[in-house]
Amino acid sequence: MADLADIIRSRHSERVAYDPERRPPDADLQAIIEAARWAPTAHNMQNFEIIVVDDTAVLAGIGRVRGGTSAEFIRENYAQLSFTEEELIAKGTGLLATMFPPSWRQPEAPPDGPAGRPDLEHGFLDETMRSCPVVLIVVYDTRKRAPASEGDVLGLISLGCVLENMWLTAESLGMGLQVMSVFSSVQAAEQLRRILSIPAHMEIAYACRLGYPAAGPGRYLRVRRPSQRFTHRNTFAAQSSQPGSRLG
Ligand SMILES: Cc1cc2nc3c(=O)[nH]c(=O)nc-3n(C[C@H](O)[C@H](O)[C@H](O)COP(=O)(O)O)c2cc1C
To answer: Which of 29, 34, 51, 173 shows the smallest number of beta carbons within 10 Å?
Structure first.
């Protein structure tokens, strides 16, 4: 139990560049896939497929795809930003503004939207993949849904369970992992569908880059709310307003 608690706490987003020459051993990749296999899913539907991309030519092709952004992203991203470490620690949620390019640290996108503005657009996917040797792309069948689940919320939760199982396993194996949501942006997904022959009824849920940091692990401020702030004993009315705490 102590081991599991340690792995849960130390699991993190490893956003630094990875060593392209250091490929995860097949057995470790298999362990990550095996963890996905045993993830709980609503109605045990297991509505996911995983595309493992480790061929350098395919990785390079994906890297040339342009990611997309939107006015919504800029606005809603801004709402999650803190501008000092103290602010982030006190909030206990969100991210430091300095993790994003200066042009994204503003409350609104320009009135004509971010399209065609290189400072606001996501760059090419290789800027996000940062020389990783492996990408896992998790896709699901949009023709199905968990029974009576409006918007397939239960199906989407299930995809999150798949992610967490894989992430904890990667952490336990000393492998870096970063989720790359940009793979499911409309602009990127369309091109990825073509490159990877993803059928029309399958949607990209998310992608993960895997590998080992090229120059040591990245260190950044990780914060969480104290548990008293989100647990409610017997009634929702009782809640504490304790400040957040840093994890690392
Ligand atoms: C569904 C989901 C999507 C995410 N998308 C991204 C992403 O596109 N890029 C990124 O760097 N991190 C992404 N993250 C990572 C979160 O930002 C991260 O988990 C959170 O800030 C907490 O940090 P930690 O993972 O280091 O504990 C995503 C996480 C989840 C669960």
So the answer is: 34
